[in-house]
Design brief:
The protein is built from four helices and 19 strands. The chain is α+β, with helices and mostly antiparallel strands. The chain folds into two domains: about 1-120 and about 270-280, Roll (Diaminopimelate Epimerase, Chain A, domain 1), CATH 3.10.310.10; about 125-265, Diaminopimelate Epimerase, Chain A, domain 1. It has a 19-stranded mixed sheet that branches. The longest helix is centred in the N-terminal third of the chain and has 13 residues, at about 75-90. The radius of gyration is 18 Å and the shape is globular. The relative contact order is 0.18. The chain binds ligand LBFN2T5F. The ligand N[C@@H](CCC[C@H](N)C(=O)O)C(=O)O binds near residues 77 and 78.
């Protein structure tokens, strides 16, 4: 079968975006992996599938697949790409759009300057939400947060365990460039304490309103930016008393802005979304 797609990115986190309102999509994990493959396919960190909504009062449903073919709950940079896609394709004329995702409804909004702000909902600070296998671990609980000691590669790191709909394990490092993201990232992602695996964030505090962030993403490896990772890092930094909202997040792929008014409040993520090219690809049966 032939598939029409748009290649997009949000701060360098790249996506294959697919209109599944006008095309029938039913791919196996192996077919998603083929599309995401940077040598044998199109290449992407995630695939975003735009569908008709299932719930009332919602404009669209969008589904997210990691490069490894697994379907996941949430993608912040993807939410912005989604808005640009449905706007450019004339699928909506609304500027504020209600979208169903696997982890609930989010509300992205197209700003006058072309950037997109996404109301990502309130972070879930309890580690049970990640989920995290806490058996046998002692914890230092800060309010309703959990800061967990995690053994990685013979070292103990303090990890903030936060769900933005999808799971994040964030640690503070002195120098994000020198941090062992490619060595410790996969160990954290697959650590037995995270039964559903996790996105591993390495955050350097620059000042109270600015961080540098690298994220080793579950199912995709290190990406140039991770929107939900940026939200989780800022929430972790604010909860630890290191940051104040709003916070500029510097990633290898560009800048994201995060605002969070505190417990129970939604995290607002602002950043760019760019279309790179359109194409059509023959999908091999699998
Ligand atoms: N790049 C994303 C997050 C994509 C999903 C993540 N890898 C997961 O498995 O939870 C973002 O911008 O948030």
């Amino acid at each position: 079968m032939k598939l029409k797609f748009t290649k997009m990115h949000g701060a360098g986190n790249d996506f294959i975006v697919i209109d599944a309102i006008h095309q029938h999509i039913d791919f196996t994990p192996a077919q998603w992996q083929q599309l995401a493959d940077r040598r044998f396919g199109i290449g992407a960190d995630q695939m975003l599938v735009v569908e008709k909504p299932q719930a009332d009062g919602v404009d669209f449903r969008y589904r997210i697949y990691n490069a490894d073919g697994g379907e996941v709950e949430q993608c912040g940079n993807g939410a912005r790409a989604f808005v640009k896609f449905v706007t450019d394709k004339g699928l909506t004329s609304k500027r504020a759009i209600k979208v169903e995702t696997m982890s609930g409804i989010i509300e992205p909004m197209l700003e006058a300057d072309g950037r997109i702000t996404v109301d990502m909902g309130a972070p879930i600070l309890a580690p049970a939400a990640v989920p995290f296998d806490a058996a046998g671990l002692s914890s230092a609980v800060m309010g309703d947060d959990a800061l967990w000691p995690l053994e990685i590669n013979g070292k103990s790191a303090w990890i903030s365990v936060i769900s933005m709909g999808n799971p994040h394990a964030v640690q503070v490092v002195d120098d994000s460039e020198a941090a062992p993201v490619l060595i410790d990232g996969p160990l954290i992602e697959n650590h037995p304490r995270f039964p559903k695996r996790v996105n591993a964030g390495f955050m350097q505090i620059v000042d109270r309103h600015q961080i540098k962030l690298r994220v080793f993403e579950r199912g995709a490896g290190e990406t140039l930016a991770c929107g939900t990772g940026a939200c989780a890092a800022v929430v972790a930094g604010i909860r630890r008393g290191l940051l104040e909202s709003p916070v500029k997040v510097r990633t290898h792929g560009g800048e994201l802005s995060i605002a969070w008014a505190g417990s129970g409040q939604p995290v607002m993520l602002t950043g760019p979304a760019v279309s790179v090219f359109e194409g059509e690809i023959e999908i091999a049966a699998s």
